[in-house]
Design goal:
- The complex is a heterodimer of chains A (414) and B (284).
- Chain A is 47% helix and 14% strand.
- Chain A is α/β, with parallel strands linked by helices and 414 residues long.
- In chain A, strands 1, 2, 3, 6, 10, 11 and 12 form a seven-stranded mixed sheet that branches. In chain A, strands 8-7-9 form a three-stranded antiparallel sheet. In chain A, strands 4-5 form a two-stranded antiparallel sheet.
- In chain A, helix 16 packs antiparallel against helix 17.
- Chain B is mainly α.
- The mean pLDDT of chain B is 89.
- The chains are: A alpha/beta (414), B mainly alpha (284).
- The interface between A and B is medium-sized, with 38 and 26 residues.
- Chain A: It holds the Pfam family SBP_bac_1.
- Chain A: This is ABC transporter substrate-binding protein.
- Chain A: Belongs to the bacterial solute-binding protein 1 family.
Chain lengths: 414, 284
């Protein structure tokens, strides 16, 4: 009896491994046949990338580009699974903030040899901030694909009414304009929302105030005067009723009916506001962020990498080189409204809209979040602290001392 | 021998993963470890010690307790009540109400979240609009730490009542008419019939609903994930969400596995208590 059970288990396992081996084989065959298949993972929707993949296929007969679109929400989980199984795409689109994590795990190929081969991948072609996101520990593991940054959306009519028709240019003007807007609007009116659920929001203001988040020696700066001052500045917007306390005020609706005169957001909001609030066409504009020491904004977006377990790294590099060229970049802007990382593409007429140009201007003064693997967790802790200070009523300095200690611990500093 | 297929499947898909998770919970596995197993090292009991020192985890345990204490009795009583009422008649009205009560159970949670998000919205929401009609002040349904917990319970309650009601309805249909007829001959009133026949004979259904609801609420996850992400101030963070955040957002697999084992043990203990407390089945 016992022997028989053993036999059944063995044969079952054998069966499984045969099936698994079979799958592996068929994969190899499809990749090494006459028609090469290049597996590409994109975040978002397929219809934004498929036209570009078609362009590539036309130029490179014999190559089939298989685009798989993954919703952003699932993308991180899916990439984790790919790393765990060491089986994934050839080319992968990476959110810029994920680069350190996956580079540290060795999931992304070193791009240096390919950059030498394909001039379109050269760093000087792209915005500085975007290039910074492709590096991990002095190694280039990706090529910039598209960029996004935050800029100021404002109602020209409302801001004009309080003396700032071109939007506030400095922190002081921002505060002054906010107070006047709320005083003029009355109850239920706010100046701008503070996106406390977005870790980059406080980071942007901190950079503007000359504060680093984590310095080059991996020392967090959260309890230093510049950062503390920043948090107190943002907190004052809550305390003085200039920003809504709850975070569920619908930004577009409030912008439309004038209960909120400004907000800071990314380029995707241009289309959203145009579609959802056509009534205020011509009464709003986009400009660069107000400055304290600088008017730094964040840079994000996505990069393209070769997955380390890819079986066709050379083909993958060729595809990425094509994606970095102007044609592909402009096409992607057309299909997705995502702004090109390639500087030369910005001279094209397609991007001459003044609102887009405002983002282009902001991009020249923007930087990515700290490129350390621990940043995701530190950013979460920073958001929690900000919430403790603004909603929970904690003392700013005490809470930020705690945050700094926690960040030190996460970074492994003794 | 004849149970071999079942045993193999169980081993392959249940027991082995549990053992692997248990092993992971004693390591410092993260994404780097996932890519190359040689980077994984043993952490001893550090994950378990740290997790009980983590204020967010302790908070999530407390929140989960609140969810269970309020949510479970509410769901069991309400779904039984609704089933009893719907069992009174068979006209189209009763039938359509069965559908109406069941509808939330089959609706996608993301769609539900969007709709309820607007109901709860502080500035444009329906609930605050209703309050304003009665001259009451607007509430921050999802921004106030205490209220947010209750708001999520209300949503989950609304969503889970339908499925449990169907189970009760099925059990009600299974009670033979002859018991009621006998009781009527003895002059029993409606209330007495309910008290001495219906509720005792629903014992098994009640037990089943209680145990599944209890386990469901201990694993409370989707509602806080889509509605509040555990905020404000971690007031709606559940244990399952805490585990998800650490495992999938922060890639701290060892830590998350330790958390899931704590959750696993709690569920086993609670289920065993349930079986122990359950009275002998009623027989007539």
């Amino acid at each position: 009896m016992k022997k028989k059970t053993g036999l059944v288990i063995t044969s079952a396992l054998l069966g499984f491994s045969l099936v698994a081996a079979g799958c592996g084989n068929s994969d190899n065959n499809s990749a090494s046949g006459d028609n090469k298949t290049l597996k590409v993972w994109f975040m978002g929707t397929a219809d934004t990338v498929t036209p570009i993949a078609k362009m590539y296929e036309e130029k490179n007969p014999g190559i089939k580009v298989e685009v798989q679109a993954i919703p952003w929400d699932n993308a991180h989980d899916k990439l984790l699974t790919a790393v765990a199984s060491k089986n994934g795409p050839d080319v992968v689109q990476m959110g810029t903030t994920w680069i350190p994590e996956f580079a540290a795990a060795g999931a992304l190929k070193d791009m240096a040899p390919y950059i030498e081969k394909y001039p379109s991948m050269k760093a000087e072609n792209f915005f500085d901030g975007a290039v910074q996101t492709t590096k991990y520990e002095d190694k280039t593991v990706a090529i910039p694909f598209y960029v996004e940054t935050r800029a100021m959306f404002y109602r020209t009519d409302l801001l004009g009414g309080v003396g700032y028709p071109e939007g506030p240019k400095t922190w002081d003007e921002l505060k002054d304009a906010s107070k006047k807007l709320v005083a003029k609007g009355g109850a239920g009116h706010y100046a701008l929302p503070i996106e406390a659920k977005d870790s980059i929001y406080t980071a942007i203001f901190a950079w503007q105030n000359g504060s680093e988040l984590i310095d080059s020696n991996r020392k967090p700066q959260f309890n230093q005067p510049a950062y503390v001052e920043t948090i107190n500045f943002l907190k004052s917007f809550y305390d003085e009723g200039l920003s809504p306390k709850g975070t569920d005020l619908d930004t577009v609706a409030a912008f439309k009916d004038g209960t909120m005169g400004m907000f800071i957001s990314g380029p995707w909001m241009i289309q959203t506001v145009k579609e959802k609030a056509p009534e205020i066409d011509g009464k709003w504009a986009v400009t660069t962020l107000p400055a304290k020491k600088t008017n730094t904004s964040s840079i994000g977006g996505a990069d393209l990498s070769i997955f380390n377990y890819s079986k066709n790294p050379d083909e993958a590099a060729k595809f990425i080189a094509f994606m970095a060229e102007q044609d592909a970049q402009l096409k992607f802007y057309e299909t997705s409204n995502s702004m090109p990382a390639l500087k030369a593409a910005w001279k094209n007429d397609a991007l001459k809209d003044p609102m887009i140009q405002a983002f282009g201007k902001q991009l020249e003064n923007s930087r990515p979040a700290p490129m350390v693997t621990e940043y995701e967790e530190i950013a979460k802790a920073a958001m929690a602290s900000f919430e403790q200070i603004t909603v929970g009523g904690a003392d700013t300095q005490t809470e930020l001392d705690k945050l700094n200690a926690k960040a030190n611990e996460l970074l492994g500093n003794k | 021998m004849f149970i071999a297929p079942a045993v193999i499947l169980l081993t392959l898909f249940s027991i082995i993963p549990i053992i692997i998770a248990l092993v992971i919970s004693f390591t410092d596995m993260d994404l780097v470890g996932l890519a190359d197993y040689s980077n994984i090292s043993s952490a001893g009991f550090a994950n378990y010690i740290n997790i009980f020192k983590d204020p967010v985890f302790l908070k999530s345990m407390y929140n989960t307790l609140i969810y269970v204490v309020i949510g479970v009795p509410l769901v069991v009583l309400a779904s039984m009540g609704v089933a009893l009422l719907l069992n009174y008649g068979t006209s189209w009205l009763f039938k359509s109400f069965r559908v109406i009560y069941y509808m939330p159970s089959i609706t996608n949670i993301v769609a539900v979240a969007v709709v309820w998000g607007y109901l709860y919205n502080g500035s444009y929401g329906l609930f605050n609009y209703i309050l304003s009609i009665f001259g009451l002040p607007a509430q921050q349904w999802l921004q106030d730490p205490t209220l947010a917990k209750l708001s999520l319970i209300l949503l989950a309650f609304w969503k889970s009542i339908g499925l449990n009601m169907i189970i009760f309805l099925a059990a009600l249909q299974g009670i033979p008419r002859s018991y009621y007829e006998a009781a009527e001959i003895d002059g029993a009133t409606g209330w007495k019939k309910l008290r001495y026949i219906t509720v005792p004979l629903l014992g098994f259904a009640t037990f089943f609903v209680t145990i599944t609801t209890l386990i469901g609420w201990i694993q409370f996850f989707e509602e806080p994930l889509v509605m509040t992400k555990g905020g404000p101030l971690n007031a709606t963070m559940s244990m399952a969400l805490f585990i998800y955040n650490n495992g999938f957002q922060l890639s701290k697999f060892g830590y998350a596995a330790a958390g899931s084992f704590v959750l696993f043990i709690i569920i086993i203990i609670v289920t065993l208590i349930q079986f122990a407390v359950k009275k002998k089945e009623v027989e007539y």
